[in-house]
Design goal:
InterPro entries: SAM, SAM/pointed_sf. By secondary structure, the chain is an all-alpha fold. The protein contains twelve helices and no strands. Helix 1 packs antiparallel against helix 2 and helix 7 runs antiparallel to helix 8. The protein starts with 14 loop residues before the first helix and ends with a helix.
Length: 255
């Protein structure tokens, strides 16, 4: 039978002692205890560990909070004791989710976040406000969860109804836009009306400019055609007069 390491000799614990403490005292899953052993965490190392260091081992937030809480008690030389009913510590992740949704009435996204981080009942009872904030739970819900958790000491075990897996995240409802008064509506619509008038004015100006350009082009075309006809007329007259003039000159010579 393996002897449990003495808390007073924490700095002298071997890696095996740390592994044994995690398994027998903290009662985490063996795979989590193995991570400490794989990373060669002895007692002298564990003595300076914080929650962030435990998270860096790839351990999720729920178990990390529990290990940190037990470690703080170990350093103080005291036995870790829960302040909540025993049934809470036996809750699974699913039961914690049921309690949060059905009794605390938190948003689905917060319940889903805690379940994703493996927050079982024995982990939940070790949570402090900052631990919730570290999981992006706002201060309001964080304080409410802790308050409802303490109320369980004076209440019978709550009834938890089965629920399906959480797939949708419920967001805060969008605030309703207030109705505008008539002066506000007129003021709001004025820029739009002004823009519409300016747009129509620009369109009229563009149409007028295009019409002028088309008129100028048509005038130039008519002028060119008239000039060509005049030139052609002169040439035709010369051609008609040419032979008659020659005939007249020839007749005068015969005379």
């Amino acid at each position: 039978m393996t002897t449990r390491p003495s808390p007073r000799l924490l700095e002298k614990w071997t890696e095996q002692d740390v592994h044994l403490w995690l398994m027998t005292e903290v009662k985490v899953h063996e795979t989590l205890a193995d991570k400490f052993f794989e990373e060669e965490v002895s007692g002298s190392h564990l003595d300076v560990f914080g929650k962030t260091d435990i998270l860096d081992l790839g351990i999720k937030h729920g178990p990390a909070v529990k290990i940190t809480s037990y470690l703080e008690s170990l350093k103080e030389g005291s036995q870790h004791k829960s302040q909540f009913p025993a049934y809470v510590e036996n809750w699974t992740k699913q039961q914690v989710t049921q309690w949060l949704l059905q009794h605390v009435k938190v948003y689905d996204k917060y319940a889903a976040q805690l379940r994703e981080e493996d927050v079982t009942g024995d982990c939940l009872v070790c949570f402090k406000k900052q631990d919730f904030l570290d999981l992006k739970v706002k201060s309001g819900p964080a304080v409410k969860i802790l308050a409802e958790l303490h109320k369980l000491n004076n209440k019978p075990e709550p009834q938890l109804q089965p629920i399906s897996d959480i797939t949708d995240i419920t967001e805060k409802p969008n605030p309703t836009q207030p109705e505008l008064s008539l002066p506000q509506a007129i003021t709001t619509n004025q820029p739009e009306s002004q823009n519409k008038i300016e747009s129509e004015t620009d369109n009229v100006a563009e149409d007028t400019s295009e019409n002028i350009q088309q008129f100028n082009k048509a005038s130039e075309k008519d002028g060119i055609q008239q000039t060509n006809q005049k030139d052609l007329g002169g040439k035709g007259e010369k051609k008609l007069l040419g032979p008659q003039s020659k005939k007249k000159n020839k007749t005068s010579l015969w005379k």
